[in-house]
Amino acid sequence: MSKPKFHEEIITIKGMHCKSCSDKIESVIGSLDGVESIKVTLIENKAFVKFDPAKISLGEINSEIAFIGYSTGSSKKKDMTLKQGIVYGLVPHIGCIGFIAASILGVTVAVNFFKPLLMNPWFFHILVLMSIGFATISSAIYLRKQGLLSSSGIKRKWKYLSTMYGSTIGINLFLFMIIFPLLANVSLSSPTGDVNAISNDLSLIRLQVDIPCPGHAPLISGELKTISGVEAIQFSYPNFFDVKYDSYKTTKQEILSLDVFDTYRATVLSESQGSVNNKINNAISTGSTGKSNDAGKLATVTNGVQVVQLSVQGANYYPNPIRVKKGIQVQLVADMNNLPGCSRSIIIPEFGVRKVVSTGDNVIEFTPDKSGTFQFSCSMGMYRGQIVVEEADGSVAAFTGSVPASTGQ
Predict the structure, then answer these.
(1) Average pLDDT, whole number, for the chain?
(2) Domain boundary, last residue among 145, 163, 183
(3) Nearest to 190 by CA among 217, 240, 242, 229
(4) Both 303 and 379 in a single domain?
(5) If you average pLDDT over residues 41-45, what whole number do you get?
(6) Residue 188: how many other CB atoms lie within 10 Å
(7) Per-residue pLDDT, 389
(8) Residue 319: inside a domain, yes or no?
C-alpha cells in the first residue's frame, strides 16, 4: 500500500478571542478523517494544517471551521480597527472643527463659544493626549476580553495596536498639517485667501505669530478678519500670516493691538505701503514745487545700528527718502517679496555699495561718513532712491550726490 501524500496549508481564521477558541478548533479539525495534524496560533490567527487530500479537501476543512462558528474568509477586523483609530483622532477635535466651521460661515455666537478654548496654548496638546487616551482605553478593553492584557499579549497583538495608534496619530497629523492650515484661508463671511489677487493699492504686512501649532491658524485669521479695513489674509505653514489692509481704514498698530496677540506674540517680518499711499508720501516729500523737502521718517536705531526695511513702490525704492544719521552703521534689510527684477541689484556709489541681494543674503551694510542728500539706483538705472544723511544735530549738508549712471551688471 502506497504511503499517503500529505498537503500542508496555512488557514487564516477570523473570530478567535482566546485560547479556548484555538483549542476548540484544534480538537474538532484534528478529529476529522484525513487530517494528520493541526496547530492553531492565537497570536497570528492562523491554523497550520497537514492533511491527506485523497480523504478530505481544504474546502471541507474550511466548512468545518465555519460550522463551529469561525470564519476563514476576509475579515473586517482590521478595517474596523482603522475606523476606530480615525474616530478617536477626530472626536477630541469636534470643538475646534466647530469653531472653524462657525468662522467660515460667520456664526458669531459659535465662534465666541469656542474661542476661549483655542486661547489656551496647550489646547491642541490636550486634544492629542485625549485621542491617544481613547485609543489606549479601547485597546485595553479589547486585550482584556481576549485574556491578553499583558506584555506578552501586547506582543501578540502588535498588528492590531499598530493599526489603532497609527490611524489615531495619523488623523491628528492630517488635521494639524493639512486641514486646519487650509481652512485658515477659507471664508464665506470675510475676505481671506491669496493676497496677491488683491489690489496693490493696499498695504501689506507679513506677521510671524508664535502659535503652538498650525491648528491655531484659523483663530488668528478669524481675529484679523474682525478688523475693518483688513481686505485679505493668507496663512503659510507653519506660522506666517500675510495681511493686506486699507491704511485709510486701519493701521499696523491696530492690527498688532488685537487681544489674541497678547497670548500669541506677533512679529512683523516685512511691510510695504500701497501705491496710493506711496504717491501721497511722494507728494509730501516733493511739496507743491516738485522739489524735495527731505520729508521722511528717521531710521530706527537698534543695538547701535540704523535698521531700514527696503522695498520698491512703483519705480522708486521705499522709504523715499531714507533718513539716517551720519557716523552710525546702516542696515538696509531688503524685502525680497517687494523687490522685483533688477531692483535687487543695488548701487550706492557715495558709500561704496554694490550688491545683489537674495533670499539668503538680503542685508546691505554701510556707515555714512558724510552728511547730505545722495541718490542711488539699481544697476540698470530703472529703480531709484534717495538717502538723506543728517548730522548729529539734525541738520543736513547742502551736498547732493548725483544719480548713478546705468551700468548694467
Answers:
(1) 78
(2) 183
(3) 229
(4) yes
(5) 85
(6) 9
(7) 92
(8) yes
